[in-house]
Amino acid sequence: MNLILLALAFCIGIAMSAQAAVNSQLAQSLGANSVAAALVSFGCGTAVLLLAALLKSGPATLGASLAALPSQPLWKFAGGFLGAAFVFGSVFLAPRIGLLSLVVLVIAGQLLSSMTIDHFGLINMATRKLSTVRIVGALVVVAGVAITVFGDRIVATMSR
Which CB contacts under 8 angstroms, 24+ apart, belong to 112-119? Predict the structure, then answer.
């Protein structure tokens, strides 16, 4: 795999954590309104993506791409709903369970769902069968999540 792409994926992970923290602070500034903070976040993101789309392809090409939207099946719009759920969920949960617990649980959910999607080729993705090494790696990550989220309780229980 290309190391630059792997580094980019790592940086996206950094951005996701920073986004949750920033959006949580925005929500607090808006009277603890998680929905308003998520709306502002999506509004800013929409503005940036509109500018990027216009710079990449110009108004005519963007217009042609958008004209194809009505012919798309409804399930293809789920990404926007899922993205909104992620942003709202992170704004709502980060101050309640902590950023670290939020992020490791998100990673565990992403890991298990992406393994399933890859293995079965769901949502028209390429099939990438599970291997023993990938399963062991996933188990190590899940164990790390459990230790991160519940480790203090486990240590406290064991020291009694």
Answer: 112/138, 112/142
Question: Which are the contacts of 21, defined by CB distance < 8 A and separation ≥ 6?
Answer: 94, 99
| pTM, two decimal places | 0.77
Among 53, 49, 38, CA closest to 84:
38
Q: What mean pLDDT value characterizes the chain?
A: 91
User: What are the domain boundaries of the chain?
Assistant: 3-158
Q: Give Rg (Cα) of the chain.
A: 19
C-alpha 6 chain-centroid distance: 16
Alpha helices in the chain (DSSP H): 3-29, 34-67, 78-97, 99-120, 132-158
Q: Confirm if 112 and 102 have CB atoms less than 8 A apart.
A: no
16 pLDDT band (50/70/90 cuts)? confident
DSSP 62-95: HHHHHHTGGGS-GGGGHHHHHHHHHHHHHHHHHH
